[in-house]
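Morning F.,

Quick status update on the modeling queue. The single chain you submitted on Monday has been processed. Sequence for confirmation:
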Amino acid sequence: MSTRPLRFAAVATAAVLAATACSSSGADGKSEVTVWMYPVIKDEVASKQFWEQAEAGFEKSHPDVDLKIELQTFDKRDAQISAALAAGSGPDIALITPDQAATYRSVRGLLPVDDAVAADREAFFPETLEAATFDGELYGVPLFQNINTTAYNTDIFADAGLDLPTTWDDVLDAAPVLAKKGIAVMDYAGSAEQTLNLSYYPLLWQAGGTVFTEDGKDVAFDSPAGVSALQFLVDLKKAGGLPADAATAGPAVEGAPIATGKVAMRAVTSLPEVGQMRAALGNDSVELGLPLQGKVRATYGNPGLLSLTSINKDENRQSAYDVLAYLGSPSMQASLNKAAGNFPTRTDVKAPGSGPDFKALNDSLKYANPGEPSPVARQVMAALAPYIQAALGGDMPAEEALKKAAEEARGLLSRA
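Structure tokens below.
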């Protein structure tokens, strides 16, 4: 793939990079390693304190290395990292997702990290390593796992005399019953800014479909499985089973219909969002279940990867490996997951809590899909999202919407 788009991105964000030095040795002879960390811990104050302590802990055991963990925001992360790679100035290590790893690797922006986990590779869950493995080499140390599952407002279902829906058919059956009470059975974040990994794709996987063909050379979301997933949403919308603004709604919980008793369930829910639901509705009114079942059960759950960028210099390579091994260690994972509410990528680290919520989320890990890595994954999402909105808005049938989206996506693939 050409790196021309990255060079353009570098020009556009030069100001961001001006203050960021590439990896080097400091004036005191120490090796310098820079990490770009993103908001794994939602609370800004807690995040700053956590990573400052992480820096200090590493430097205490590695006095010859100056570790700099720089906190970034998710806003424009792709453009920021792409610009850094193109300019050769930025972080040695960056927190990214598997689909980003596929993209950056395709433009030679990442370096393998097998050596960083050589000592304890067997301790990682195989699925988390597989998500970061391309052509037999590992391109990210799995730092944590996200997992999402179904959350219910149990009061709504109890008041309507309904069991908690666990399948698509259950959801469709409950929709008209609740619609008569002015309640949508399920929410959906159709905003174009929302990643499809947390909206349409879980339904696509539940239908037995995939975004791309197995060889990654074509899209497959316009298959009968893809049409059935989108038709499920369209049918729900027609039955009053989705909020009126589902086509454009964002993923927020606070202030949204799910938090005001106007929506009965959320099909893709993270642990922090469960906490927000409980804060709004009451502890006893919210319950987690397994991911919904269409043809199969499936949900989105992916590892956060600490990836080594091509910015890292040969003389700093071992120091970068040491940082990766330290941040991915059992003690660091345990403390990070406790602070962030995520799940471990290692078998020798326990889940960050106990009780029904953690059991439901832990049980859902086996249904997790980390997304489908592709150098054009994000561009395909951007092409597909407006057509899903059009189908939900009644502007075109589900099959036609996906057919038109696939035509655009195939154009992206051919140019890539």
